[in-house]
Write a structure and sequence with these properties.
Layout: H1 7-25, E1 36-43, E2 49-56, H2 62-74, H3 76-86, E3 94-99, H4 102-119
Parallel strand pairs: 2-3
Antiparallel strand pairs: 1-2
Length: 120
Amino acid sequence: MEKSFSRSSKIAQELKKNIAIIIQYFLKDPRFKIIITISEVIVSKDLSYAQVFVSFLETNEKLNVKKLLTLLNKASGYIRKILCKKLKLRIIPNIIFYHDDSLIKGNRISLLLNKLVRKT
């Protein structure tokens, strides 16, 4: 019988929760004045890498998103250091941040569908 949750998915959930706490409380950089939400964490099978998908509230310019992603990727070593203290894992994965724009795309699709319904 197959397990409903694998080890990597459990670790991904713990990483998601702890990285969100670290970003909110431990990163004191004044450039992180906006709200950062973590939508998903995907951990590789050997637990060496973690892809963290984040979305930013109140950003309209693409330059700001790119700048915030580079800042988060530069702070990933510090975040990993704090994760080493919080989690009792033999291997803490290297963290790579990616932008998750699914909310923006979903809003665009919803607006287009509403326009189509109004026209018919």
